[in-house]
Amino acid sequence: MSTELNTSVGTPTHTVVRRKKLFTRRDLTGYLFSAPLLIGIVVFSIYPMIGALILSFKKSSQSFIGEWAGLSNYQYVLTDSLFWQSIYNTFYMGILSVILGVSLSFILASLIHNISWLKWRNFFKGVYFLPNVVSLVATSILFSFLFNPGSEGLLNYVFGIVGIEPIGWFTDPKYARFSIVIMTLWGMLGYNTIIFIAALTSVPKDLYEAAEVDGANWLKKWFYITVPYLKPIIIFMVIIGTINAMKRFTDVWLIGGTAGNPAGSLMTAVLYIYRNGFLSSQMGIATAASYILFFFILVLTIVLQFTNRKSNFD
Amino acid sequence: MNKRSLNRSKVISDWILTSVLLIGSLVMVIPFIWMVFTSFDWAARLKIPFPPRFWPEEFSIRTYQMAFTNIPMLKYMINSLIVSVGVILFSLTSALLSGYAISKLKFKGANIVLLLALSTMMIPFEMTMIPQYLMFAEFKLLDTYWAFFLPALNYAFGTFLAKSFIDQLPGSLREAAIIDGASEFTVFIKIYLPLCIPILATMIILQFLAVWNDLLWPLLALKTPDKYTIQLGLAMFSYNKDLPLPSVIMAATTVSLIPVIVLYLFLQRFIVESIALSGIKQ
Fold first, then answer.
1. Whether the predicted pLDDT of A189 surpasses 90
2. Confidence of residue A313 (pLDDT cuts 50, 70, 90)
3. C-beta of residue B124 within 8 angstroms of C-beta of residue A295
4. How far does A177 lie from chain B, in Å, by closest CA?
5. Where are the beta strands (DSSP E) in chain B?
6. What superfamily does domain B71-239 belong to in CATH?
7. pLDDT class for B29, splitting at 50, 70, 90?
8. Half-sphere exposure of B155 (CA within 13 A, CB side)
9. DSSP assignment, residue A114?
10. What residues does the ABC transmembrane type-1 domain cover (chain A) (predicted)?
11. How many helices (H) and strands (E) does chain A have?
12. HEC string of A51-71?
């Protein structure tokens, strides 16, 4: 690969000409080592992204050779009430689960972090994280029984003891989204908590000591030292949580089927993409919807990153 | 405040915190306890009993026999294991080689490769799944495990993890070995690979959990029931059922969780640390 680059244009001929190689052996080895990753990125990230963009402008065929459809796929998706319903549901569940999840796990992490006994700390970390290693399939199946709408469901039975009428958790459009949020919280709480605990241990101890000298109580210390110090991590958790919430599919598909039952209250954006792409083979519409969803995710991420940057100037 | 009363108040607050967290822990584990007990309850095979109970009325392992006759659980678990092992091999090879190259070889364009990897990490799988599906359909690789192994090469997060880890290892090891006439590949295999075992273990855990628990791509890529992964098999069995079969489904779900729970019991602290590390790193 040594290219005959004569760098000595216009120099007298009697000087020694240094030939500079464009790529050294070491560079080539570097590319050879990176080849599996680069092939992976090109074939499974870049090409599909371009492919999806092309498909979204094609008449709903299953190949790239189909007729051009102009903007009609996007027009179809943006005027489809089912799509907007799916976006609404996705956001509804997303916002609820992120706000509740981040705040609850932050409190939980603060509690666990403040126990002086290491054994108990590790025990609680282990227990609260346990639901996180359980698959979403198992969780959904399990909760569809615990949230059984009849009075024989465990949760309704407990409620019944207190005198609350049985609630149709996953069968009542009023409660279905909220029930999914509860299930998500159970599964995700431990993940956020563990990351918060790791962040809490990195807060410099002398800050607290200085505050104690000034006579601050634990609440003041928590509010004026811990919260500001953890702000970047909190924002990060919100971003991750939001992105994950935007991609909700497995649980709603298992519980509400492809129609997002009850009454379409569990129809989410990815479920909409799945329906159009894999049930009715409308790949053009499905990819257009996925690009609109991607746009939503991108905007959200940028907005949240911006909040993060701004908070660092304070 | 003297020291003694301060210590006493600390002990009291510790007890209060522990009690509160114990009650919370109960909420976390009750679903599991109910699942395991119900899975042994022959009386609950057709419908959930009223009033709900934990201890089985008719303790029996016949529910498990029914689960295994209805769903080829063992086959699905072996399938899941094959997929997991393959994905781990492909993704770790890709991540380690590229991470090492970016960190230690410092070739021209290493930063561009890293930037490319980091930016593609942001792309959700849901965005690329349709073209990826069509691509595998084109090459007649749907319904084979190649549909899982090949995309595993695109493990940018692993590259990032490996690179940050190898950054902390001294570069002088490589230089000395190269002067002694070793090839770049030998240096990587003989010197750096053994030092990378901690990060390798972390990646194996993260990837195993991700692959074992995944549903969406198996649902799209696998057609023949014989090739189903455990999650897909379980999902298909419980999906759209006229008969709920509570205790049989609970038995199947329990069995599907055994590998992950056993792994968790043995490696709990390591898994928790891996997750914390990966979360902070991102």
1. yes
2. very low
3. no
4. 19
5. none
6. MetI-like (1.10.3720.10)
7. very high
8. 30
9. T
10. 87-304
11. 15, 0
12. HHHHHCCECCCCCCCCCECCC
Q: How many CB atoms lie under 10 A from the CB of residue A47?
A: 15
Burial bucket for residue B169 (CB in 10 Å: 0-12, 13-18, 19+): middle
A145 half-sphere exposure, CB direction, 13 A CA radius: 32
pLDDT at A15: 53
Q: How many residues are given for chain A?
A: 314
Partner residue facing A138 (CB), from B18, B127, B256: B256
Quote the DSSP letter at residue B41.
B
Tokens linked to A112 = 């666990």
Residue A109 has pLDDT above 60, yes or no: yes
Reported as a pLDDT band with limits 50, 70 and 90, residue A64 is low
Q: Is the pLDDT of residue A11 over 90?
A: no
Judging contacts by C-beta atoms under 8 Å, the chain A residues touching residue B137 are 62
Q: Which residues of B233-260 are buried (b: 16+ CB within 10 A; e: fewer)?
A: bbbebbeeeeebbbbbbbbbbbbbbebb
Determine, for residues A40 and B48 on separate chains, whether the beta-carbon distance falls below 8 Å. Answer: no
Q: Where are the domains of chain B?
A: 3-60, 71-239
